[in-house]
Amino acid sequence: MDMQKAKGKVVSVNESLVGVIITQGAVMNGEVAYIVIEDGKRLKSEVIDVKTGQFVYLQVFEDTSWMKAGDLVEFSGLLLAVKLAPGILGSVTDGLQNPLYELAKKEWFLERGLEVEPLNNKTKWHFTPTANKGGFVTGGDILGAVPEKIFKHKIFVPFSLQGVFELIEIAPEGDYTIDETIAKIKDEAGAVQELTMSFEWPVKMAMPFYERSVPEKPMPTGIRILDALFPIAYGGTACNPGPFGAGKTVLQHSLAKHSQADIVIIAACGERAGEAVEVFKDFPKLLDPRTGKSLMDRTYIVGNTSSMPVAAREASVYLATSVGEYYRKQGLNVLILADSTSRWAQALRETSGRKEEIPGPEAFPMYISTLISAFYDRAGVEIFKDGSSGSLSIIGTVSPAGGNFDEPVTQATLLSTGAFWGLSRTLSDARKYPAIDRIDSNSQYPSLLKKEEVAHLLELLRDGKSIASNILLMGEKGITDETYIRYHKAELLDAVFLQQNSFDEVDGVSNPSRLRIMFDMILKIIDAPLNLKGKDKIRSHFNFIRQAFLDWNYMKIDDTNFDEQNSKLLNLIKQRAYATEDL
Amino acid sequence: MLQKTYDKIDSIGRSILSIKAKGVHNKELAEVIYPNGDKAFAQVIAINNEQVTLQLFSGGFGVSTNCKIRFLGKPIQVGFSDDMLGRVYSGNGKPIDGGPELLTDMVRIAGPSINPVKRLIPKEMIRTGVPMIDVFNTLVRSQKIPIFAKAGEPYNRLLANIATQTDADVIIIGGVGLKYDEFHYFRQRIEEAGSKNKTIMFVHTHRDSIVEGLMVPDLALAVGEKFALQGKNVFVLLSDMTQWSDYLRQVANAQDQIPANQGYPGDLYSQLASRYEKAADIDGAGSLTILGVTTMDDITHPVPDNTGYITEGQFYMKDGYLELFGSLSRLKQQVNETTREDHRSIMNVMARLLSEAEERVKAQKFGSVKDDYSFRLLDYRKTFQKELMDPFRYLELEDALDLCWDILARYFKKEEVGLSSKLIDSFWPKEGQYKILKPHNNE
């Protein structure tokens, strides 16, 4: 059975792209290889192209300094894979699943050639079998479960196993490591295989859905502008392109903290290390209000930050996605935050350039759009054999060059995602956070508000924008009081409802019930007839309401003064509604 | 290690050379040996069978086909010792201040990045005394942040000010493409401030080769990182990274690389990131803070654009002022909650009102500003610029915050500013009683 693994020799080195001549055996496109350099270190790499004359290109996941022509290459015969088993939640790994805390025990710096066990293989997990000896199983069937952090982790027959197997042995309830045998199965030919609680999955292959359904249930994010106007659904996809400094990172962190998903996976791809650090050092200290446990218990972080080897960026995105698909198979709602898909695309551009492929627009490879679409297609709602379901949602950050949304990565992403949150520098300069464009953003998913309520708000926002440009041209005196009131209603909606202080404990997150209370109040203000005359009086009226509303936004819903402030606001609206004179 | 010498030079360009050689390592250091015995450094940057490409530290001019290349069997390294403090080095690591060459430990340059779990969350404000920084875009220890400015703005003066007015243990200046007078200015400023004994300079001026310029950030950061690992708080100043990127473009072009945007190589982002990411607050050691300069005309140009995605904000300098819009400190939220209770709120309100005022400036061009509120906004804007945006006005943070309240009170009513009632009660100045703001002359 054991095929002879291929061997080769380095012939060319150009940064992370290495050309190799095969000296023995056969190679597979996508297989993992190790380059053995002079000091004996083994540098992990991946076959990305097989050329004529026994020549292949490898992309190396490590720094290629000190490599030379003639260095030995050992091929593994295996595709780049992720190890799936209990123990992933709460961990932080690099893009190749090396746990960073374990690496730090060896070296302070990410020295090359270091590989450690992706998952702890000493920890004992309490396994309770559910499958019966003598029964028949196939890939994806459940053998039993172990408790992991906040949920029951199902132990599957590896998804890659096809056909029917007889379960000839299953371990009794007890404590096992992920590498201990917990079952034995026999195929029709009589060959016996031992199964453990772990198995591997090639990261670039999408896990097949048992049955696929459409995303139609809104996923609350706690961010009002999203939940009300531009929602994402469980199993849906969204992108938030924007120039630097428009608040992508703060938005992503807020989503990671407050989204009502069971599991959040953060793929920090080619971005600042400091941002990932904030997450994995802060989250363990924060409580998830839904479970009462540490926020880290539902989080997994893949960190291939901008100064780590470029070739591993691609791997990090796919690693995160495969883990996401695995937890979806567990029947959970999983959210992947990929920050930033542009850095992944740039990594592909670097490699493509070194291979001297004919470049597409802005020198990105021609196939970039296909890869992006296929990536977002791995999100979705899955229905299982027993009728239960799970979902995987993906929110991808895009960092367009020059903040220009016409560039290839943004365009390909827009075609592949269901919600578009365009971040605007004009809004962020005006400190109107989240700086998500109120007019140009969109979503195809249902909102927490009713359809006609959303339309009502969007109409007011559009009106407000057009009145603002009239004011710019003609001055406040050039428009009627009635129009001026409409303008102030739009401004108020923006200031107290769409804007949100994500650094404040209370204002930073609005759950669905609070969103409803706030919306109802906004609606009262918008719909209240107002008979004020004179621009100064109108402005002052809305100033008072804004002040009172903002104070209210910072009060906890169960604070005693919350209701007081509520009445105060109602009075303000009522008092002025019918007044013809300034009170 | 065995040193091999080869003489089969194939081609010589402005900054790269190609030669046939065997057993050569990627990134190996080499020497170009001229027929008269002179030597210059070179480094291997690509290998294809026996074809080896090197970049030339002294440029290709004057290199002849009868030069020899000796491969030195070691990577590029830089010296490291306390004795380097007060000294000035070139982009190839040689002293250029007339002082002796030091025999020191050699350390690797452009090493791997620190494991993220060894990083601390930045949490310590660095007081600079510059109101636009301390109040609006607070600098935080271990931050990486450049000044964005047109050529000709006084960015180097600000850079030197910040470095010398703060509490850095070690200052390392990495000058890339400096004019001679800028180099001279840095030296003088550091000496005047009495900081010479904690400063090391790596300097590349326009008379040196671009490859040496390319090396400067790596040398400065490698030495800085070592000091940080010893527990020191280090400031690395890099000026000007736009010229550095330009050199990168020239070398990539000479290698026939396919350009991405405006001729820059596709890896410009990664190249800049691997330098700026050296900034870190290290668990169990010191810290490295990077202040850079990115000269630019247009923020969407590839260099400031890529830089903005990498650094933790930027200070935007225009017409001698530090601008509010366009400037950003991503780490300010880590520290400005604990400075003074009004800090965050007043910062946001001042910015929002200024943004409203900017709208009025546009409207003014249409002649549509006629109401009292708009006129007050315009006056507010003028005062804001005069009182707060001068990068060379020194104010302690608390005074600068008080000044903000003074300015608000001069132009607005309490309910117009959108601050919580609690803060207004504690901080709103009593009628006409300003703490910092001077009384109006023309009122």
Automatic annotation (TrEMBL), chain B:
This protein's UniProt keywords: Hydrolase, Ion transport, Transport
Domain of life of the source: Bacteria
Pfam families hit by this protein: ATP-synt_ab
E.C. number(s) listed in UniProt: 3.6.3.14
Gene Ontology terms, MF aspect: ATP binding; hydrolase activity
Gene3D superfamilies: 3.40.50.12240
Transmembrane segments: none
InterPro entries for the chain: ATPase_F1/V1/A1_a/bsu_nucl-bd, P-loop_NTPase, V-ATPase_su_B/beta
Transcription as UniProt keyword: no
GO process annotations (BP): monoatomic ion transport
Domain ATPase F1/V1/A1 complex alpha/beta subunit nucleotide-binding: 129-318
Enzyme class at the top of the EC tree: hydrolase
Keyword Metal-binding attached: no
PANTHER family: V-TYPE PROTON ATPASE SUBUNIT B
Function: Produces ATP from ADP in the presence of a proton gradient across the membrane. The V-type beta chain is a regulatory subunit.
Name of the protein in question: V-type ATP synthase subunit B
Protein species of origin: Confluentibacter flavum
Phylogenetic classification of the source organism: Bacteria, Pseudomonadati, Bacteroidota, Flavobacteriia, Flavobacteriales
